[in-house]
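Hi support team,

I've been running sequence recovery on a batch of backbones for a student project. Most finish fine, but this one hangs at about 90% for roughly twenty minutes before it completes. I'm not sure whether the input is malformed or the queue is just slow. I've pasted the structure tokens below so you can try to reproduce it. Let me know if you need the job ID as well.

Thanks,
M.K.
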């Protein structure tokens, strides 16, 4: 298993990023300003994009694992890698996600706790309804974790 930073041609990894964020338009808003990491285990199995949000805050904008590789610890490994790599420059890592029974418990198991909610984020920013586990995502739920 190897984690590498992608500095050029980030869009070549768009297919996997679209699992974490259904809108290429939204991905374009953060992809170039973000730092992108891919986890390789024979092939690229997981990806993560993080951004500097100022005041010691690092945000996971996108994290996705190929469906056949989910549940094997790859996303957690990326989160731990990012937390360790940025520990000296950032004090908090945050992630925004939909109110889903799949994602919220995953982040809580990774040490994140509730921070705040952005009402109607998904309905205001996407041109189509987004569903996860048969539930329409409406609000963005932010979770945070101290890394320093």
């Amino acid at each position: 298993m190897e984690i590498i930073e992608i500095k050029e041609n980030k869009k070549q990894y768009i297919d996997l990023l679209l699992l974490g964020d259904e809108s290429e338009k939204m991905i374009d808003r953060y992809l170039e300003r973000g730092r992108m990491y891919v986890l390789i285990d024979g092939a690229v199995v997981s990806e993560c994009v993080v951004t500097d949000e100022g005041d010691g805050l690092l945000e996971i904008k996108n994290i996705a694992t190929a469906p056949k590789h989910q549940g094997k610890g790859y996303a957690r490994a990326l989160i731990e890698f990012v937390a360790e790599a940025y520990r000296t420059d950032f004090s908090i890592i945050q992630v925004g996600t939909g109110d889903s029974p799949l994602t919220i418990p995953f982040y809580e198991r990774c040490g994140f706790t509730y921070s705040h909610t952005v009402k109607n984020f998904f309905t205001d920013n996407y041109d189509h309804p987004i569903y996860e586990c048969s539930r329409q995502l409406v609000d963005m739920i932010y979770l945070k974790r101290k890394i320093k």
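--
Follow-up from support: It reproduced on our side and the slowdown came from queue contention, not your input. The mean pLDDT is 95. No action needed from you.
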